[in-house]
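Researcher: Sequence recovery benchmark, item below. Answer with residues only.
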């Protein structure tokens, strides 16, 4: 079994800004079958210690890979300006813009927080480079959820109180709601995410935050569009808790996905 415990959070990572961390491997031995760069976008309010369980696993699987990890807070998604979020992801984009054409990128993100950040990165990359994010594979852990913007507007419009402070909070929550709705659409947009990049959906029937039906709906939509999809469906793991439930199964699914490209 691959044990992915980290001792002190992202201790062997360099911090590039308040949200982005990078690990440059010490080994000089690379493998043709390993990713060159792994980009991990954590779930909303996941701490570096949470993310380190995954970075440690990847360091053991692919010791020659560089690893970028980016965190997302609820403030980033609901309150920060677009400009502030662009500044947050800037170190990631700077690295992606300079990747060699044949570089092998693995993208792994979690829940709606990770999809929010990943789709923002993909949109800005497409705007600058004129092509989809160059990920060879995409791993969606506990993502995406599903929301209907029109229904949300109606619900929030009725529920918004007259108190101006609470009303502003309600509007910001509505902004968050719409942001996640847009992420779901963006993830199946071919100009943002390459149709040739296989994807792996890891999800659970017991997830009380992201319904497994919502994930499977998105998976089916992706398949109809021409994406190659793989599913790892757990029965009793919690939201973003699949690794903790069965670590061996989790990493085996990741290895199968990567070995197919």
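Model:
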């Amino acid at each position: 079994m691959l044990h992915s415990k980290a001792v002190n959070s992202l201790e062997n990572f360099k911090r590039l800004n308040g949200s982005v961390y990078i690990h440059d491997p010490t080994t000089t031995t690379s493998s043709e079958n390993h990713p060159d760069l792994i980009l991990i976008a954590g779930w909303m309010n996941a701490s570096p210690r949470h993310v380190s369980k995954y970075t440690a696993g990847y360091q053991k699987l692919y010791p020659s890979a560089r690893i970028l990890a980016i965190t997302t807070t609820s403030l980033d998604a609901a309150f920060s300006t677009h400009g502030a979020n662009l500044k947050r992801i800037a170190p990631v984009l700077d690295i992606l813009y300079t990747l060699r054409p044949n570089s092998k990128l693995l993208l792994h993100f979690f829940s709606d927080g990770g999809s929010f950040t990943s789709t923002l990165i993909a949109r800005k990359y497409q705007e600058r480079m004129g092509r989809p994010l160059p990920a060879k594979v995409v791993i969606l852990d506990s993502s995406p959820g599903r929301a209907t913007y029109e229904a949300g507007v109606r619900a929030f419009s009725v529920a918004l109180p007259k108190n101006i402070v609470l009303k502003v909070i309600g509007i910001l929550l509505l902004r968050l709601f719409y942001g996640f709705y847009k992420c779901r659409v963006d993830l199946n947009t071919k100009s943002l995410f390459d149709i040739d990049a296989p994807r792996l959906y890891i999800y659970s029937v017991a997830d009380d935050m992201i319904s497994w039906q919502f994930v499977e709906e998105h998976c089916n939509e992706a398949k109809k569009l021409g994406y190659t999809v793989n599913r790892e469906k757990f029965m009793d793991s919690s939201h973003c808790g699949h690794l903790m439930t069965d670590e061996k199964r989790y990493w085996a699914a990741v290895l199968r996905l990567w070995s197919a490209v």
